Each structure stands twice: as C-alpha cells, then as structure tokens.
C-alpha cells in the first residue's frame, strides 16, 4: 500500500459536510423532491453507514456529496473545499479524481483489462508515473488478497474477486473520501464479509471517511455510525462501537 500519508492523523475530523441539501427530479409534469433539506457529515477514520428503504434518497445523497450530482439547494464542504458545488465542472472532476474513491454494486471494471491494469490505469489518470503506478497497484491487489490473480480479466474472476479489484483500485489512490453504494448486495455472505472488512480497514488504517449506502442490516456491526434516511430526510444518527469480529451469516 502507499504510505499512510497525513490523512491517518486526521481521525475524527469532519471530512465532508452537507447543509440543507435539496434535490428534485422532474419526470414529465411531476417533480419529486428526493432530498428534503439534508444536513450530513462524515469523519475521517469512520465507517458511516447510510441506511434506509429503497427510494429514500441514499444514492442521491452520496452522489451530491461526492460531486457527481448537483443539488438544487444547499452546500457541500469537502476536505479543504468550503463549497464543492461552487467549483467549475473541471475542478469538481479533478477533486473527485484526486480525493474520492467509489465502489458500486456492479463493480464497474473494464472488461478488457487485467486486474493489475484496472488499477494502474486509474493511477495513470491521476498522474502517477508508470513504475510507481505498477508498484502501488500490486501492493493494493496484495492487500485485498488478489496477489496471485492480478493478471486475470474480469470474465475470469468471481463476483467477490471483481469487487476486491474495484476496492484495490480505490485503495491504491489512497482516497480521503470513499463512497460505496450497496457494495455487498451482489455477493454471498463470505465475499460480502471480505468487502466490508476492507471498507473497515480503509477507515481505520488509512483514515479515509468511508460512507457506505446499504439496505443490509447485517453490515451495521462494522459501522462507527449509522444514519437512517427515509423519504429524503434523516431520521436517526447513531454512533456505535464497531465489532471487528462480526460475521456475516446467510
Ligand atoms: N435521474 C433521476 N430522474 C428521476 N428520478 C430519479 C432519478 N434518480 C433517482 N430518482 C428517484 O429518486 C428517488 C430516490 O432515488 P435513490 O436512488 O437516491 O434512492 P435509494 O435510497 O438509493 O434507493 P435504492 O435503495 O433502491 O437504491 C427514487 O424515487 C428514484 O426513482
């Protein structure tokens, strides 16, 4: 893995904070308000779970927090940016590339690239020199237990292995903000457990602020904080002590 960098020193500090987020979608003649004035923050070193029923606005919230989807109202302060959505589109893209990692249910891997190439390509976009990218990519793949599989393409990997490649790609960047949207929902219990443990480690060992959207109540055991959202509003914000020995049974 890359050196732990200064971010691990920031455990407990707020990494991203939103105020008064409102997001509406127009479909035909109707407008639905999906986020209804959401205040939210997530801290370095925390695994923050965002839970709530389908359609409650979870994915919309992380898209607005991470610079993927512009809210209609409200602001997002992220790392040293007091208002992310005041930046130009190019600067928001740059911010995401430099500081954010994403893990989605569908893995989002390039079909033609090996596991190693998936990771080096992203580091290359970030400006890493070839040899360094390779070395960081190998270390990240070893960290997720894929050292022996790094020359396989996605079609030759299981679902759990593909999600681990996606996590290695994300960890190699050493992102300060890590957003995961239903990262375990396509996986069986055993692979889901590997993935949630890696998210836990990204928070504890790398000091990332990990924000994980999930339906799955079994993941709560690993969380430092659970935020429940329903119908575009935060209903509950609970701090807890994670259980490092938790298991995901079927
Ligand atoms: N681009 C869009 N255009 C119109 N409506 C949208 C759009 N994106 C999301 N929605 C609607 O906004 C609501 C919230 O969607 P969102 O994906 O944030 O919910 P969620 O809590 O993540 O749901 P799930 O758990 O099912 O993924 C849903 O009713 C959805 O249909």
Automatic annotation (TrEMBL):
Gene3D superfamilies: P-loop containing nucleotide triphosphate hydrolases. GO terms for molecular function: ATP binding. It comes from Peiella sedimenti. Keywords: ATP-binding, Nucleotide-binding, Transport. SUPFAM superfamilies: P-loop containing nucleoside triphosphate hydrolases. Residues 16-250 form the ABC transporter domain. It holds the Pfam family ABC_tran. PANTHER family: ABC TRANSPORTER ABCH.1, IMPORT ATP-BINDING PROTEIN. This is ABC transporter ATP-binding protein. The keyword ATP-binding applies.
């Amino acid at each position: 893995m890359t050196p732990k960098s200064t971010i691990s020193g920031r455990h407990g500090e707020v990494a991203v904070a939103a105020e008064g987020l409102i997001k509406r979608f127009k479909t035909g003649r109707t407008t639905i308000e999906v986020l209804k004035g959401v205040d939210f923050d997530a801290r370095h070193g925390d695994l923050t779970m965002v839970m709530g029923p389908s359609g409650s606005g979870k994915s919309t919230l992380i898209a607005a927090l991470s610079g993927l989807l512009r809210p209609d109202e409200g602001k997002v302060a992220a790392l040293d940016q007091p208002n992310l959505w005041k930046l130009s589109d190019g600067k928001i893209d740059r911010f995401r590339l430099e500081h954010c990692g994403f893990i989605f249910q569908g893995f989002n891997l390039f079909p033609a690239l090996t596991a190693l190439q998936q990771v080096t390509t992203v580091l290359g976009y970030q400006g890493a020199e070839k040899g360094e990218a390779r070395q960081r990519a190998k270390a990240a793949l070893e960290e997720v237990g894929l050292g022996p599989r790094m020359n396989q393409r996605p079609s030759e990997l299981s679902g759990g292995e593909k999600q681990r490649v996606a996590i290695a790609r994300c960890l190699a960047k050493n992102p300060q903000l890590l957003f995961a949207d239903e990262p375990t929902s396509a996986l069986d219990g055993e692979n889901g457990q590997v993935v949630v443990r890696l998210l836990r480690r990204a928070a504890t060992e790398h000091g990332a602020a990990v924000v994980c959207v999930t339906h799955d109540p079994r993941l709560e055991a690993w969380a430092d904080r659970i935020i429940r959202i329903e119908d575009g509003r935060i209903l509950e914000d609970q701090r807890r002590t994670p259980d490092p020995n938790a298991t995901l049974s079927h």
